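Quick note —
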Amino acid sequence: MAKPAIVLVHGFWGGAAHWANVIVELKQRGYTDLHAVENPLTSLADDAERTRKMVAQIDGPVLLVGHSYGGAVITEAGDLPNVVGLVYIAAFAPDAGESPGQITQEQPPAAAANLAPDSDGYLWVRQDKFQESFCQDLSDDDALVMAVTQKAPLASTFGDTVTAPAWKVKPSWYQVSTEDRMIHPDNERRMAARIEPRKTIELAASHASLASQPKAVADLIDEAAAELG
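Predicted structure written out below.
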């Protein structure tokens, strides 16, 4: 049975390389058609368009996988006909008219105070607080690299709302990070329940579950791909 193409969509404060460990894991499982979008993080519309353009280059079925804010991106961009499913990894799954910022305000996460805007309108995680906020289950060295190479979004992107949520028409899967300090775990559980996924798993992981528990994350992606096949 042919495996679908996997398109990995990163979130705020990171780029496509945040998927490094998952990419290696999926390759070892026989996935050969792997893609990781590099989103500009300038607006939800820009990021969804970048993701749509990548999906449009792929012949055949595509499984979209979104981490963090990347979940909002796949929710907005997942309506393309060759997208067969959505996998959310500690991710936002907004409803129509909802923004990641609105969801965050309803249940602020533990690390909310560690975000710092700059004079150009970009929002950063304070470098000295990055590990404890984003990836407390990674090594000091790995956390340092993530902190220094973080890709800050335009703060205004937090307020961008989803139009037509793809999870209402595409089968979905969801991974909750129970130790998440960037999105409140109860917010993740609420969003997961609302999208009525085929399966929800909980990992005792930080927000960076894709880096700290790539095997378990790949297991969920693999299961979704197999079910869709």
